[in-house]
Design brief:
Shape: globular
CATH architecture of the largest domain: Up-down Bundle
CATH topology of the largest domain: Rhopdopsin 7-helix transmembrane proteins
CATH superfamily of the largest domain: Rhodopsin 7-helix transmembrane proteins
Radius of gyration: 25 Å
Helix content: over 70%
Structural class: mainly alpha
Distance between the termini: 51 Å
Number of domains: 2
CATH class of the largest domain: Mainly Alpha
Number of strands: 0
């Protein structure tokens, strides 16, 4: 019982942090999209939404873990919860893949990028992504071989889904995606090497080469670095869970469900907390937008405090406060 309560507390804290962190990143990225009309940032916004939905999905499991005495969850309800968790996690992973492909396309085809990746294409990609994610998440509900034959009332991932489901996802999705990422970044490294050579040649010859082909901007390669960190964190977070699930399928006598559900699964879910932290730290545009949001909040709080003090200080205090507000400079507000 103590173990269940401890797990429930950890789950509640993790779910809250995931929702709050991704909501803040979503607000910052949405502001950037409205300000700069950047289509590619829609993928970043989708990643924050998918991770926030994952936090919302696992928050539904908190009540079961913290309830005393432990009350059984209906099998159908547990299946739907785990399908929602799986589809949200799949949407997060597929979005990282889509961001990686978007950056690869921007560097590989800089002249045709905006022709290919227009508003319609971005919308189609996101619609297809959520369709595939929901198909993956709810797949065990339609295939009997991916379901557990027995259910004891305690809702968890492997209480309703068989490890064969994770094995199938690993072989069909996870490992091929890793190979695809390796191909992307090997090609990107080759392009980056050529780009560096072009810069050195431009320094000697001049800027005439730009008339024939505009060089890739440094921001493209910085964005690729951010995506590489996202992929690395995803691999480190989910690999232990997926590999141990494969071991469980191969070794039926090995009872690894406790380790899988209370440790490795939490490690994988924690990737949805790492994603917004990575963007908040590594992506300069997001950092600057956070600074602007914090400054706007600081100005709003300062104005509210001044108005409250004016109301409490009577007419004389109100006149002084109004005079102070009108003469307050921008630098004083930032300070």
């Amino acid at each position: 019982m103590e173990s269940s309560v401890s797990f429930g507390v950890i789950l509640a804290v993790l779910a809250s942090l995931i929702i709050v962190a991704n909501a803040l990143v979503a607000m910052a990225v949405l502001s950037l999209i409205l300000k700069n009309d950047s289509i590619s940032l829609c993928f970043t916004l989708n990643l924050a939404v998918a991770d926030a939905l994952l936090g919302l999905a696992i928050s539904g499991l908190v009540t079961d873990q913290l309830s005393s005495p432990a009350r059984p969850t209906e099998k159908t309800l547990c299946r739907l919860r785990m399908a929602f968790v799986t589809s949200s996690a799949a949407a997060s992973v597929l979005t990282v893949m889509l961001i990686a492909f978007d950056r690869y396309l921007a560097i590989k085809q800089p002249l045709r990028y905006f022709q290919i990746m227009n508003g319609f294409m971005v919308g189609a990609c996101l619609a297809g992504l959520w369709l595939v994610s929901n198909l993956i998440g709810f797949l065990p509900l339609g295939i009997h071989g991916f379901q557990q034959t027995t259910y004891k009332g305690s809702c968890s991932f492997f209480a309703v889904f068989h490890p064969r489901f994770v094995l199938t996802l690993s072989c069909v999705g996870f490992f091929p995606a890793l190979l695809l990422f390796v191909f992307f970044y090997c090609d990107i490294l080759k392009i980056a090497s050529t780009h560096s050579q072009q810069i050195r040649n431009t320094e000697h010859v001049g800027a005439l080469a730009r008339a024939h082909r505009p060089p890739r901007t440094p921001s493209d390669f910085k964005a690729v670095r951010t995506v590489a960190i996202l992929i690395g964190s995803f691999t480190l977070s989910w690999s232990p869970f997926l590999i141990t699930s494969i071991v469980q399928v191969a070794c039926q006598e090995c009872h690894l469900y406790l380790v899988l559900e209370q440790y490795l699964w939490l490690l994988g879910v924690g990737n949805s907390l790492l994603n917004p932290l990575i963007y908040a730290y590594w992506q300069k545009e997001v950092r600057q937008q956070f600074s602007q949001m914090a400054l706007a909040m600081k100005k709003w709080l300062a104005a509210c405090l001044l108005l409250l003090s004016a109301r409490d200080g009577g007419p004389e205090g109100r006149r002084e406060s109004v005079r102070y507000i009108t003469t307050m400079s921008h630098s004083e507000l930032e300070g």
